[in-house]
């Protein structure tokens, strides 16, 4: 799933930002699309963690590796967008990508420390 999601991100980043959906109000459209940076790479991190949970192996170190992979893919996506006509790449977009990953990893690690994910891991086995 994480690799399929990465392909989806790459594909959508290859299109103009209004290719899939454009809201009637340009301010709302811009706000929603800018906010999606926070969510988009948090989802990637969560999919990487879910993939690890299927193996039964999870630790703080592996969570950190997943976060680095998700953030690095955010950087790669921004670099990719800089070469796509009608798209832009900014440092603030990358900061939003990383912020989403950090917030998601905080909640994952908080849940892991409290419960160890025993119930969740049961669903993945």
Automatic annotation (TrEMBL):
InterPro entries reported in the protein's UniProt record: VanZ-like
UniProt superkingdom: Bacteria
Protein name: VanZ-like domain-containing protein
NCBIfam families associated with the record: vanZ_1
Transmembrane regions: 35-53
Keyword terms, alphabetized: Membrane, Transmembrane, Transmembrane helix
Native species: Bacillus yapensis
Pfam families assigned to the protein according to its UniProt record, in alphabetical order: VanZ
Chain ranges of the VanZ-like domain: 28-107
